[in-house]
């Protein structure tokens, strides 16, 4: 992965730029996991690094690094597929490269400021220079403006290339969806002193990203990857893509009501949120069935022609993308549905149950397929026709997935205990909040989460090691 620039076999500048984005993404992913481990230890030993590296900071860097690495990997994936989809070499990619360096410099400064300035008053100056205090998208305003500029450059690259090149269905969805995705970021930049109003708009970014625009984005990646990796028929995947666009936007947009249950918004959101968010798993199931169905059909077609050989051109990428189909369904569809009705959410709201869902959904729906695209990028960078999984690929996939699933189950148990003790038995008082966290079920669950976090991290090391070496190894093979 690292040497891929020196050894450059990439046929176009877009893919070079894509690999640059992937490298930063994987570093930030590593940073995310380390921060998660620190925060997990602090659940067990609250004094750990107290006043040196507080829980609030570890948690903040953990989830902001998560969002930023995913955005990096999404931009990277887009650049990787740009030329292949449009048949055009790419417009103004030199400017795109400049954008990459500006963004990376800004991200580095923001993270250093988070780490070195840990506590202090929230003032007009801190909004501009330190952070805005909005979970997941905490970048200070100067960085917000920089991000907008860089994203405009990125969007110009994609849009202008699309206009000049071939307009496939996948690219059309991608171009339209990216505009919505980038535009929503603006909703998270308006500051108000009213916490209800602030949360109202903040959800426009968070929910409409992960339950609408990001889902459609990974739909385009899955469609592209299935064509490239197993030779799926374009008409079939594009048809499903359009159906998903329709369904996800339909349920995802009004499904936002499931965050408007208890923040001071009008009560009509209860019914709207409950109904539409409950429908959200439907397209996820469709996507899941579709991937497996296509897969079986392609296999059958090849077998019928007497081709016994595997038709997968990139084993590890395909394995991660299949994991995505399962992960999206489980993390977003099932774990999301669990707590999406107000009758349930009144008990589960803001417990570790939410964290269980957050982990499995972000991992299953996004981390998986983005890692798959990284493998695709590596394959291109080293110019190998067929890239098979190595022992390291398998260990990476297995340990990371097993670790995240383990954490999810542990957190679900912790959440269940909170629901029962804190909410059900003790009536959601301040005292109940602390009592629930001191009981053995909760503490043991947190211990298991930490253990499973370590498993995830070991898997991550295998993953990076594999990404660094698999290209060369496949060339030699
Ligand atoms: C890949 C898609 C998804 C991702 C990445 C995701 C992620 C998250 C995260 C991180 C939170 C916690 C937000 C916070 O910090 O307050 C959350 C909350 C929530 N999610 Fe999702 N989610 C996804 C899809 C879904 C779906 C499909 C449903 C419903 C079927 C759903 C239902 C909910 C609900 C009800 C909450 C609020 C929990 C609470 O009240 O504490 N999510 N989601
Ligand atoms: C080494 C592995 C990891 C550990 C030990 C870990 C630990 C943690 C901890 C302690 C928190 C704070 C929870 C709280 O405030 O109650 C957290 C939050 C979060 N983590 Fe992780 N994490 C890990 C990996 C991941 C991965 C792989 C993802 C997703 C791809 C992820 C996504 C999140 C999200 C979305 C939240 C916010 C959840 C919420 O507020 O509901 N983490 N994590
Ligand atoms: Fe949501």
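-> sequence recovered:
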């Amino acid at each position: 992965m690292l040497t891929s620039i020196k050894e450059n076999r990439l046929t176009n500048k877009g893919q070079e730029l894509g690999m640059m984005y992937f490298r930063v993404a994987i570093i930030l992913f590593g940073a995310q996991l380390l921060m998660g481990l620190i925060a997990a230890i602090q659940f067990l030993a609250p004094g750990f690094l107290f006043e040196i590296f507080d829980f609030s900071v570890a948690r903040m860097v953990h989830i902001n690094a998560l969002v930023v690495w995913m955005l990096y990997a999404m931009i990277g994936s887009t650049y990787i597929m740009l030329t292949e989809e449009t048949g055009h070499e790419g417009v103004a990619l030199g400017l795109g490269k400049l954008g990459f360096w500006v963004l990376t410099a800004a991200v580095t400064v923001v993270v250093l400021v988070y780490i070195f300035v840990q506590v202090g008053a929230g003032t007009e100056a801190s909004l501009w220079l330190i952070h805005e205090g909005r979970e997941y998208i905490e970048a200070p305003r100067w960085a917000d403006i920089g991000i907008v500029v860089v994203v405009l450059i990125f969007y110009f690259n994609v849009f202008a290339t699309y206009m000049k090149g071939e307009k496939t269905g996948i690219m059309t969805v991608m171009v339209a969806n990216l505009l919505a995705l980038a535009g929503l970021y603006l909703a998270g930049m308006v500051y108000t002193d009213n916490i209800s109003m602030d949360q109202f708009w903040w959800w426009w970014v968070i929910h409409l990203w992960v339950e609408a625009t990001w889902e459609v984005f990974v739909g385009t990646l899955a469609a592209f990857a299935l064509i490239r990796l197993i030779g799926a028929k374009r008409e079939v995947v594009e048809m499903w893509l359009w159906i998903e666009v329709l369904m996800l936007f339909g349920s995802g947009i009004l499904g936002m009501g499931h965050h408007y249950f208890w923040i001071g918004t009008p009560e009509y959101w209860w019914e709207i949120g409950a109904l539409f968010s409950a429908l959200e798993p439907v397209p996820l199931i469709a996507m899941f069935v579709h991937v497996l169905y296509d897969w079986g059909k392609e296999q059958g077609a090849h077998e019928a022609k007497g081709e016994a050989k595997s038709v997968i051109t990139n084993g590890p990428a395909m394995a991660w993308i299949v994991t995505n189909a399962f992960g999206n369904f489980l993390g977003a569809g099932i774990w999301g549905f669990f707590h999406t009705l107000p009758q349930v959410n009144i008990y589960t709201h803001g417990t570790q149950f939410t964290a269980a869902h957050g982990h499995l959904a972000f991992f299953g729906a996004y981390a998986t397929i983005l890692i798959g695209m990284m493998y695709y990028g590596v394959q291109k960078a080293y110019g190998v026709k067929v890239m098979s999984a190595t022992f390291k690929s398998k260990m990476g996939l297995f340990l990371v997935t097993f670790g995240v699933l383990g954490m999810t189950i542990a957190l679900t148990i912790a959440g269940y205990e909170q629901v029962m003790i804190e909410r059900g038995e003790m009536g959601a008082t301040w005292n109940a909040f602390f009592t629930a966290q001191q009981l053995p079920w909760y503490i043991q669950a947190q211990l298991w989460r930490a253990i499973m976090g370590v498993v995830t991290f070991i898997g991550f090391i295998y993953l990076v090691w594999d990404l660094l070496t698999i290209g060369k190894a496949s060339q030699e093979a």
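The pocket of fe (ii) ion (ligand 3) is lined by residues 207, 211, 258-259 (CB under 6 Å).
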